[in-house]
Amino acid sequence: MKLNIAVVQLNPILGQLEKNYKTALKLAELGIERAKNKKLDLIVFPEMAITGYNFKSKLHVEPFLEIAGTGKTYELAKSLSEKYKCHTLIGYPEKFPISETAYKIYNSAMLIDAKGKIVHNYRKTFLYETDEVWGCDESPEGFQAFDMEIQGRKLKATIGICMDLNPYKFEADFNDFEFGTFCAKEKVDLVLAPMAWMNTSWSADWSEKDVAEFTEIYQQPLEFEVNVDESQSQHSTATQPFDRKAIDEKTKSYWRLRLYPIFAAREEKRNVLVVYCNRSGVEDNLMYAGTSNIVRFGGGLPIFRDESVVLDYEEYGELGQGTEGVLVREGII
């Protein structure tokens, strides 16, 4: 089965909802238009796609919270899904009322179908320290697998938001691979990972000078990266000086490693399609890794060739670490 997927990589400006909305819409439509006549199945946006991520408090994030099925984030996803008759996944800060006066906050991602309805609303299970700063709660349900109907076929899908791919609180055993183990155990067909993942050139110990230097780099104008053809996926590894168009290879390799249990599941030959959709840019003192990409993990026994182990694995394309852009590819499940 072949899925046509558009991955939209954004650099949302914190709190500038209208501007971010327009950029997200423009990029999605630009990629689909350039892809020519391809019937799209799925559009994927990053974590907290049009609000920005690095909020400083509950009071700071409050104006941007959305009840599932309302607000600008839902409006964007609904309009795209209805227009292109596809599914759209998008991250947002969720307000979940628990009484007339009280509510909980979740870092969530909603999946909208071609009729504009929410078919699944996932809440982040493993929280990053930034989530906790603005009052986010862990999902009470944990990781979830759910049915998703595309092209008349039911796929088993799951969503992992950014920190979900890491060890719990960075304290759990690295080799537990909690999210990857869940994916393998549930035998999912499709893994969707909207993220706001840090760049490996970033450090929590950044000085004001570091912030200023990278902020200046990102203030330089750069055209949108519209990658709709395999010949366009020729990116270099990040070098010095910092190259926004290059791939953050260390981050990309780490994402693969965290899904090791999918590789290790050798009882049957089965494809698993993984969509990594990360944001880019500098936001206050944080810098994100971009590098959004689509890959296929295959099952079955490994092949031994020239003293090396060859795994059934295929990359379908990627975006630069510091660009805003859209990647459109056909992936196989």
UniProtKB/TrEMBL annotation:
GO terms for biological process: protein catabolic process. The lineage of its organism: Eukaryota, Fungi, Dikarya, Ascomycota, Saccharomycotina. It comes from the Eukaryota. Residues 3-333 form the CN hydrolase domain. This is CN hydrolase domain-containing protein. PANTHER family: PROTEIN N-TERMINAL AMIDASE. One of its GO terms (molecular function) is protein-N-terminal asparagine amidohydrolase activity. Pfam families: CN_hydrolase.
